[in-house]
Fold:
Amino acid sequence: MLRQRLLVALIAIPLLSVLVYFGGWVWAGVVSLILLAAAWEYIQLIRRTGFSPSLGWMGLMILGFLGDAMGILPNSRLAELTLTLTPPLALVWFWWIQRTAHPIADWAFTAAGALYLGWLGRSFVWLRNLPEPHGRWWVVFILFTTWAADTGAYLVGRQWGQHRLAPQWSPGKTWEGFIGGCLAGLLVGAILGFLIELGAGPGALLGLLIGSLGTLGDLSISVLKRQAGVKDSGNLFPGHGGVLDRLDSLLWSGMLAYLYAHWIQGF
Structure:
């Protein structure tokens, strides 16, 4: 398991680093593909519980959020129009056209998934579009701090974990692993914060928050997987699970960085 994780990391980290460097539409396209792949896994999980959300409507809403983050066609307000019209049209689709067994629930699961993935996921596009070099370094900070926190939680929990954090939802997570993840996030956040001129103090604080709140993101997806009766959302990444498994912490990290950059730094 550890060997598989390391192999995936050795491939993914250089590839993502190159994509972050290019930014622009290249990065926005990659984020779109990742979020749509996660949406597909989300749809499969919900369908296992007996409901029928729509990947098409969900994908359209996600692209609306990303279009808003990119600021495309601002004069026509295409993204705003998409986000305004898609939810009611989707409800009409479920209720009058598709006529599913649970139209309101199917619509709610569709909208909730789009809100979770699209609203949070657009942070990565918005942050990368900040003036250089801020945009590039913000995304690097999020990725490496989150990966450090996840790795710290995994290694500490595996070696010393004894007290279960949430056994009803994720039996493998422990309080020891949670603390290890927080400390790893704090340390790497402080180092990266110093290197990118964010500051060691703010970097450490953000790293600590990423290490702690990232666990909540992980648990939120664990609840969904437990309801669906599966261990992983998919099997795309050996040793890591699916796309949704890899995004659970990153989505919350991106949100935190977005709020800090917007509210504190004034971008």
User: Anything to note?
Assistant: The mean pLDDT is 86.
